[in-house]
Design a protein that fits this description.
By secondary structure, the chain is an alpha/beta fold. Helix content is 55%, strand content 17%. It has a domain of 169 residues. A 6-stranded antiparallel β-sheet has the order 2-1-4-5-6-7, covered by helices on one side. Strands 8-12-13-3-14-15 form a 6-stranded mixed β-sheet, with helices on both faces. A 3-stranded antiparallel β-sheet has the order 9-10-11. A hairpin with a 7-residue loop joins strand 10 and strand 11. Helix 9 crosses helix 14.
Length: 573
């Protein structure tokens, strides 16, 4: 039950606080006074979308809060993840919503921040809202199916989940089977191409390290003469074979070092400092002899495997062979990613694809068998849902006809037709509400034959039945009386009053026949003398209720006949 509703800075309402009765509550007011503002406030508590411009001009934010009784029965209907957030001994739950002037919203549950979806889940168990145009939704097949499913017992939700899972499984297998059929059609052609490409790669056996090594070897072979000449020049500098020395031989670096060492060693023992330098000079001479020998060996062996680390380079015409090897590797790289690494990655993918193609026939047969099993399971769920719906449809039609009789439509016929259709997540049924409002009129779908006033009464009848066993959520009707009047309006009011005997009802109405039946009456009044215009909500005492009924009858406040009529409406209640 909704104990209290607070609204601040929402459109015309600056501040409003409603303490509701446990039975039938009515809200009335002049056209344009802002009755639907309260309907919008309740929609915000249910997690509805905040429209632009709903914050009262000059205010920073709008605030809506609802305090609900949390009975054990309602607590059982809450989603487990939300129930865990409430204290085990909680007797009430407070839903709140703030909407900033910039359009940003924040939601709260018992004073703690929450997601808007939490309000939607909690509010759905605490409050059922039927707006001015809610009856139009009754003409939609999806809405009719949802209503019927709600009457199929507690197990129907589990049946729906199982059917949705089976349908999703079937769709996945159908997609997989189509993919495998396509794969099978192109299998042989693609296998031939993969075998050719892998054979080409395996024949060359590309390797990133080898490729880098061959590039270096090619550069050395291309400049082999220059390398040998450089080594020879070094040898000649150390130990020339001919020159212009005093003995007819040109002195090289080694000869000069040997002569210098000989002269210094002739003075050995005279000065320790010079002796130390002699030792260093001797080491330099030895290093020069080693270096000259290595340069000579390099010049003789350049271009052989001992230097380049490749047996290929020992053969006659090795540069030509190396160039051919590199050209073959680079052709392969251009085909598969532009690098040797790309070639190797392609080979891995190609082998995996070859294995997939090779196993396509086996996978095709296996998936076909799985699909048959999934379709059989889906059909079982479809039949279980259909059986429950057909059973509930007959009971539902009888109950709605009884309700219509109380709403001045005693001659109307009403039935629920369940038709087969292609299986989907919600089963394989299409539901159609069929009505004949008057005798002699052929029955037809609700969307085709019912007038506005008839739709309002049909909605009330359907919702009365649908909510009879659906917990004790507060029912809110926003001008459900549209399109009716006279005795029909009185009958609708009586039905709302009867609903209020077992649960809380809030009705926003413009008809005195309905308003007169309220256990608690609220009126919304617009004050245009202030800027911006302000609307206030007040709870009416009995004399004020009569005055409001007089206004609703379209009479002046001092019209004694209208006042007498208003008192008569109240006494009849």
């Amino acid at each position: 039950m909704l104990q209290e509703l607070r609204v601040e800075n929402l459109l015309l309402i600056e501040h409003a606080q409603l303490r509701l009765a446990p039975a039938l509550n009515v809200l009335t007011g002049e056209t344009g006074a802002g009755k639907t503002v309260l309907a919008h406030a309740l929609d915000l508590l249910l997690g509805g979308r905040a429209r632009a411009g709903i914050v009262r001009p000059g205010a920073g934010e709008a605030y809506v809060e609802g305090v609900f009784d949390l009975t054990p029965h309602l607590a059982e209907q809450l989603p487990p993840e939300l129930a865990e957030r409430l204290l085990s001994d909680a007797e009430e739950v407070v839903l709140a919503r703030r909407v900033g002037a910039d359009g940003r919203t924040r939601a709260y549950v018992n004073g703690r921040s929450a997601a808007v979806s939490d309000l939607r889940d909690l509010g759905g168990a605490l409050l059922a809202f039927y707006g001015q145009h809610e009856h139009r939704k009754l003409t939609l097949a999806a809405a009719q199916l949802e209503i019927l499913d709600g009457l199929c017992g507690a197990d129907q939700e589990q049946r729906l989940r199982a059917c949705a899972a089976a349908f999703a499984r079937t769709r996945d297998l159908q997609a997989r089977l189509a993919e495998l059929h396509e794969l099978s059609a192109q299998r042989e052609r693609e296998l031939d191409l993969l075998e050719f490409e892998l054979a080409e790669i395996d024949a060359l056996a590309p390797d990133e390290a080898e490729h880098e090594r061959l590039l270096g070897a090619r550069e050395r072979l291309r400049r082999l003469d220059a390398l040998r000449a450089a080594a020879a020049a070094g040898v000649d500098a150390f130990a020339p074979e001919s020159g212009e020395g005093s003995d007819g031989v040109r002195a090289g670096t080694m000869a000069l070092l040997a002569g210098a060492l000989q002269r210094i060693q002739a003075l050995a023992g005279v000065d320790p400092a010079l002796d130390a330098l002699a030792e260093r000079l001797n080491a330099l001479l030895l290093e020069s002899e080693d270096l000259a020998g290595e340069l000579r060996d390099y010049g003789e062996r350049a271009g052989t495997s001992e230097v380049d680390g490749s047996e290929r380079l020992c053969e006659e015409g090795s540069l030509e062979a190396l160039e051919e090897r590199l050209a073959a590797l680079e052709r392969l790289a251009r085909k598969h990613g532009g690098s040797i690494r790309g070639v190797l990655e392609f080979a891995v993918q190609a082998r995996a694809r070859r294995e997939a193609l090779a196993g396509a026939e086996v996978a095709l047969a296996r998936t076909g068998e799985q699909l048959l099993g999934a379709e059989a399971a889906l059909q079982e769920h479809v039949l279980a849902l259909r059986e429950a719906r057909q059973s509930a449809a007959a009971r539902f039609a009888v109950a709605v006809r009884e309700q219509l009789a109380e709403l001045a439509m005693a001659e109307a016929s009403f039935e629920v037709r369940v038709h087969e259709r292609a299986a989907g997540p919600s089963g394989g049924d299409a539901v159609e509400f069929v009505i004949a409002p008057n005798p002699g009129v052929p029955a037809a779908p609700l969307r085709e034959v019912a007038s506005g006033g008839e739709l309002s009464r049909v909605m009330l009848a359907i919702m009365s039945v649908a909510n009879a066993s659906g917990g004790r959520a507060t029912l809110v009707f926003d001008e459900v009386d549209a399109g009716i009047g006279g005795q029909t309006a009185r009958a609708v009011g009586a039905r709302l009053r009867a609903l209020g005997e077992s649960r809380q009802v809030l009705c926003i109405t413009h008809l005195p026949q309905i308003a007169s039946l309220g256990d608690r009456h609220f009126s919304i009044v617009k004050d245009t003398s202030v800027e911006p215009t302000r609307a206030t909500v007040v709870q009416l005492a009995e004399p004020e209720v009569v005055s409001e009924l007089v206004r609703m009858l379209g009479a002046d406040s001092d019209d004694t006949t209208a006042r007498r009529h208003a008192r008569g409406l109240r006494r009849a209640a």
